[in-house]
Amino acid sequence: MAIVQLTISALPAHVRTARLMATAVARRAGIAESTLDEVRLAVGEACSRAVEAHRAHCPEQPIQLELIDSAGPPPGGSRPGSVTDRVNGSGSGRFEVVVSDRAPAKEPTDTALLDGLTGDSHAYLGVHTPAGGVSGLSPDVGLAVILGLADEVAIEPGDIGTVVRMSWPLGGPDPEDGNSIV
Description:
By secondary structure, this protein is of the alpha+beta class. The protein contains four helices and five strands; from the N terminus they run βααββααββ.
């Protein structure tokens, strides 16, 4: 298991760095070339959401990313309570990206929207638009986009921030039969 940790400042320019790093690590992990755009876009959405939240609530705090290639066993076993101890889905044979911010979760009326992300991404449409937002869409529409891009998604809002976990299976299509190989 390989883990790359990246810390970025709450600046929009650093989202590009996170996307490039995630794409490079995903390619090295063995993600299919056809899936790399999904990884790039999902990481961009998660990081953009975190940057926006940090700029509004805690601009001096960094945003944490963990890029996890769980193709093999963790060296020396996983640390209890670490992100590698809680890898999405089956754990092995997956590439996972964890984006953690330190901005407080939205007001209680907005947390219901985060709860609705278990499958009803349409809950984000028609929500009031804050200054600088896109008319008719909540800034958190990016979370709904992530649901469509990542194979598995977990969103964990909390008092000390939100953790967005996204994962994709490792391996690409076999050119001879079109089946996935790992």
